[in-house]
Amino acid sequence: MALNLPQISLSVSIRNSLLTSVFLLLAILAGVSVLATMRLSALQDAVESINRDRVPKIQALGDLNVSIAHAHLVAIRAALSTAPDPRAEAEGELRRRIVEVQAKLARFQETIGSDAPMKMAFDQLINKWDLYLKQQAVVLEPEVGASRNRLEHEVNVQTPPIFQAVVDAVEHAIKLADHRADSAIQDATLDAQLFRWVLWSVNGVSVMIGLATLFFVIHDVSMPIFRITRSMEAIAKGELQTEIPYADHTNELGLMARALAVFRASLVENERLNAATRTLSELSEWLQSAKSESELYQMISKVLGGLMPECTGTLYIYADSRDVLEVAAEWNGEARTRFLHPDDCWSLRRGHVYIHGTNEVEFRCDHVHDGADENYCCIPILAHGETVGLLHVEYNFKGEETAAQAKARFADRARLGLACAEHLSIAIANMKLREGLRDQSLRDALTGLNNRRCLIETARRELLRASRNGTPVSLVTLDIDHFKSFNDNHGHEAGDTVLRHVGEILKAGFTDGDLPCRLGGEEFVVLLPNCTIDEAALRAEELRARVEALNISYGDGMLPRVTVSVGVAAYPEAGIDLPEILRVADGALYRAKHRGRNRVELANGGMVPPIDEMTNRAVATLDAIVARAESRPGSTADQDGDQQVA
Questions:
Q1: Please, which of 97, 239, 395, 532 could form a disulfide with 234 given CB 3.0 to 4.6 Å?
Q2: How many other CB atoms are there within 10 angstroms of residue 506's CB atom?
Q3: 561: closest CA among 553, 569, 571, 551?
Q4: What is the pLDDT of residues 397-441, one digit of tens each?
Q5: What are the counts of helices (DSSP H) followed by strands (DSSP E) for the chain?
Q6: Are the beta carbons of 237 and 229 closer than 8 angstroms?
Q7: How far, in whole angstroms, is CA 370 from its chain's centroid?
Q8: Is the peptide bond before 572 cis (omega within 30 degrees of 0)?
Q9: Average pLDDT of the chain to the nearest whole number
Q10: Distances (CA, A) of 5 to 20, 210, 226
């Protein structure tokens, strides 16, 4: 019974099991005591029966047998005595012996009681004894004694069988007494065997009950407590993925297991929150170290995707026009809404966080697609009191979760999203502030080109890289010819217009790592990493031609033609640092001005021909190469000619 109680109260189960075991053991002890008493009583009865029946009866029958034998001897002596006196004496002794035998028979008859077999044997003995007495009376008759032959016949022939019958009757009674005693001993032996079998059975049942109780205590008490204790120790060591057994039971073990599961879940959640807090702290530090907005948004996508694996998230940032928000970062899935209007989101319209799926009165945002789960939240990103973006988080419902579990987990993710939004707002605000300050410090306000400071920082970095890798770096300097006349004849506004147009040409013609800069006034510089001086000369001539082709309208008319003088120098031929290379390039620029302006001069003293002349030279060079190739023996042209002749 105790083994079938794993689901009821453990204390009740243990109590019932122990009480059952105690009651059964007490019953067994009582039964053993009764059986032992019965066995002792049976043995005592057997001993008493033997002492009471067998020994006295056998002794009495033995005495009776001896007395009958003595009486028979006296009877023979009396029958054989011829003298009167001896005969009379023998007859007197015979009568005394017969009386003694009769007395013993009477006493033996009193010991028989209700023993029917013994009564029957005793009756046979009495009958035999009566016949023997009659035969003795015949033997002692005077007429028989007078005849010697008849006396011998009676004594030797007739009397022995009768006497032997009496002796046999006594022996039969003795055997019967022995048999009765043997029966009592056999009964006692059977009782002892039965008692021994019952005792072994009782001992076996006791052992089985003890083993069953031990099995119950080990299987349903000790082992479960040991397993739960081992799980507790593992969880205490930080092994939070340890399996907790017996959580589905309804007894105390189940309560303990479920309580331990709740404790583990709390530890897991605390560990996750601590990890999230540490990650957010690290994220804040990393975000502050981002060097550009694109790198910042890449960090946000990677970190938030790991922090909220159950959620699909999108970070929207206001465009410069402030009329639409664009996707800046996304994680755990691609955003279906790439652009949204501020009026499409309730959080932007209401000015605070909007969590959908947790309130009784709620409406879906227009930017949320139809396939999204009802559990989502929109968190405005505020920086310096101004909304700069929107953090949108959608919960991905899992089939194994209940609705309540999904809402609870989503509420936790929404809180985590709020914490992330605070860090993101600070990082985005700082990044925009840094970008603005950097723009102001590194860009020329009039042309939008980089300024002298940006040139110095970039040139230092590129020259160091070139020194390590052995790659070339070229520098192009240009100056607008007769720029002072634009200011003097048309006003400074016209001069600014010319500068802006030249700046646009520089921005359009130099990209992908090139750095066009305005040093000041009408002076410009272009830094060309991984570019040889010949390549830089060609690009400089291309720039000069584009500037020369400018048609700038100003006011009601057109400004005069704009030209530039250009100087080209390269690392390491012109020097190993920016001031030295810039000085050499300026020298080439001055030579271009002294030689008539609107031209490109190299630092080594060479001049770059005009672009049309370069084209003609290139064509001529190609024609010469083709001519040489055709004049070679075995060329393709010769082969074709030979074929035609053939």
A1: 239
A2: 26
A3: 551
A4: 766 677 777 777 788 778 888 888 887 888 887 777 777 666 666
A5: 19, 14
A6: no
A7: 36
A8: yes
A9: 79
A10: 13, 17, 19
